[in-house]
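Writing this down once: the sequence line spells out the residues, with the fold written below as integer tokens. I am pasting one below:
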Amino acid sequence: MTDTLALVPSGIDTYRQPVVYMHEDCHVCRSEGFAAQTRVRIDLKDRWIIATLNVIARGAWLAVDEAALSSSAWAALGAQAGDRAAFSHPEPPASASVIRAKAYGNRLDQAGFAAIVSDTLDNRLSDLDLAAFVTACAGDRLDEAETVALTRAMRDAGQMLDWGDRAVLDKHCVGGLPGNRTTPIVVAIVAAAGHLVPKTSSRAITSPAGTADTMEVMAPVVLDGDALRRVVEAEGGCIVWGGGLALSPADDHFIRVERPLDFDSTGQLVASVLSKKAAAGATHVLIDMPVGPTAKVRSAGAAEALGARLSSVSEALGLNLALHISDGVAPVGRGIGPALEALDVLAVLRRMPEAPGDLRERALDLAGHLLDLAPNAVRGQGRDRAQSLLDSGAAEAKFMAICAAQGGFREPGSAAQRIEIRAPHAGQLSAVDNRRIARIAKLAGAPRQQRAGIRLLARIRDRVDKGQPLYELHAETPGELGYALAYAESQTDLFTLSEGVS
């Protein structure tokens, strides 16, 4: 079969981007006029994908009659050893003209956004196309009507969970605050109160840990729709990874391109959050917005603008939404990184004396606010109810039951390598740079290494002496510890210490 190539797995992880590798002397590559970065359609039996081509030089690891597929491309095609596939130029994406129109300032309707979402999920759009779309929507270039249309298009493109006529509670934090791992505690409290709270969470993209990463330290989080429903029907709640459920699946593709560009877009953030909440079947949603100079939302004005857009789009989608503005000056809890954050969560749920008070209080504030949001709730009594459920041990028992239903509870472990970072001078701690402390935790290996990260030893308003430990670096290998330490030691102003305090 001279018009096909043998498929082999490359073993290369390209995240969600399908990539194909061909030899530069490959007859198909030459005949079709394929060049590096060409978009290529691959047909195998009754399945097809569109992938980006990388060309391998002579003498390298790939034979001329083979095509190697990235891990995501291999899985998407359902390829097996010995398969042969056909390769061709794909039809131009229908949404390319829509993206061009948006780039020139035209407003898009839901049909236009739906075309972009559909082509995105079919991998018909290159990263350049997606970058053009993200750029055209950056800043305030999506108005309210466009934000509603994009949210609906993203919601409708994937799976949607249906819980009947029951009220479904959910919460979300816009992020930017390391260690702010309130979700497992809030879900445990709200489920213990008898409410339905099927929580789907993300893994970290640029942070040291996402909620799914932290939860995975303690219990399995990769559940399909049927398993999720069984857990929720049995225990009232769950904390699972949303990436395996195809809820608003285009969002992951957009985020992959948005993050390196580092664009702030109110419209795209709102569409990302609310499309997933709507797809998960939520009816009542609480949004936590930490505000601080190094948080994602940096000012009261930015919080007001984001809150207004969240509220208006939620109303258009039929969601009951409440906003919770919180302090984003410094990290929450003591742990930054999956296992370290899990230890904080368990300390709060177990009512341990050393449990971080700020994490406990934030979780109670959020759980109380969410309980007040529930139908037929007596407003203002939610926090007292939340505290009662936590202090009585009911929340801990519910959390353990949820873990058991998801596949079994595991105690978090500890990293093999540790070192303390000490204060360069005396003072009172008044602020911590959230972005740089998160970077140090990532350089130490988090979240890929679950036990890596940072344990904070000093808190806001603490008085510290020169040489007193400020935080402890955790890593799995000496190399990762040294890599993070080199950067950490250069960040002498990471902690703001007021002079004159001994």
